[in-house]
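Lab notebook page, bench 4
Experiment: in silico fold of construct C2
Operator: M.H.
Input chain length: 418 residues
Purpose: comparison with the prior construct
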Amino acid sequence: MEQPDLTPRQRRRRIVAITLGLAACYAFGRVWRPGSIAWHRLPVDLAAGLALGFLFGLVSIEGFDRIQRRGKDRPLARACRYGFGMALWGAMMSLIMPASPSGNVMFLLLIPIGVGVGLIVAGRGSRVGDSRHCPKCDYEFAFAEDDPDAPIRCPECGTGWLGRLVTGRKVRSPSLFWSGVAVLAGTALLVAAALQGSGLSRALPTPALIAWAGSPLNIRGKSAWAELANRTLTPEQRARLAARLINRRRDGRWWLGIGATEWLEAEVAAGTLPPDVHERFCAEMFTGAEIDAPRSVRVGEPFTVGLKHTRSNDGFRYKCFIYLGGFAVGDGPLLGRRSEGFYPLLIDRARRSPYTDVSQTLVADRPGRTVVRADLWIMVQTGFPAQITWDDDGTPVIPPNAAWAKRLELTREIEVLP
């Protein structure tokens, strides 16, 4: 029998529960990083999670409930009820869990699987009308409730049916059923192709191979990238594919994978990429840092500053390092210059370590609003971070293994109290 409609109070409670649950998942998935939690991002991501969770709850509860009530005599409404909910859950979970590429792919697969299951369930039959039938063979119960001549068992199959009758005649839809089978079969073929390996890669033309190799659905991408290395690509194709991979690396939703990273780094090493794409590859390896300093200090009293929320996208051959030119208060001299290079993740104040401590003690000499400055040099190098020397003007001597270098100045405003 069809499930009874939810009361308004039940619908509101379910919407609130979905909203809070998805908001918590979204915020946690966005602010959590291995080894730390980016608390500074929590308010914005929690607000975004509440908005997305409320929208999803409204669609999944109110929307489907209205579809079912208005179209309960149509098989497609049954498909919406049983299948599209799974599809929406897959899309939502792939949105709120950005850290794992394999997890995102699995959640995205719930979309076609949910559609296929819903169509199959709808095609197998939905009950229409108010007639009553045997729960086993669907034979119609053509008697009144108080008819003493009504049989206690179904004349067709012998099943005891009193008290077990189902409402509505069963209507089947072969077209919906086979459409669902086709969707599931297509999904299975896509997954098999993603896991199959070199056979598919060799059969694809070069433009399709480029699209397939750069797709997140290319779960085991070694064969596709190996085949791509044997193809002759035009400069435009190389530039577009490299830019696409750099965009994926920047967005952080999909890890590039071994094959994609090796191909991209090989193109950088060979110098085949346009200057703007090469610049993006290096510049976007460093994704951010902030000065960790107190909001207010007193004149003449020492205070400690450092770096926090330092992030980078490292590869296998090319890695991003930070060289500290020093910290300063206002226009004062830079203090704390270092000759060694640091991995950005290892100098975050949230991961204090005596071996990677870049903090510095400063003193403000006048009251009022002022800024704390950090002079950084970002370098992309091959191998381990090189020891450097500094010129008298405060610029570093670029080491031989550096492929790219750029100066970056960070500032943080503080209040100096009398």
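Observations: The first strand starts at residue 32 and ends at 33. The CA atoms of residues 372 and 412 lie 5 Å apart.
Next step: discuss at group meeting.
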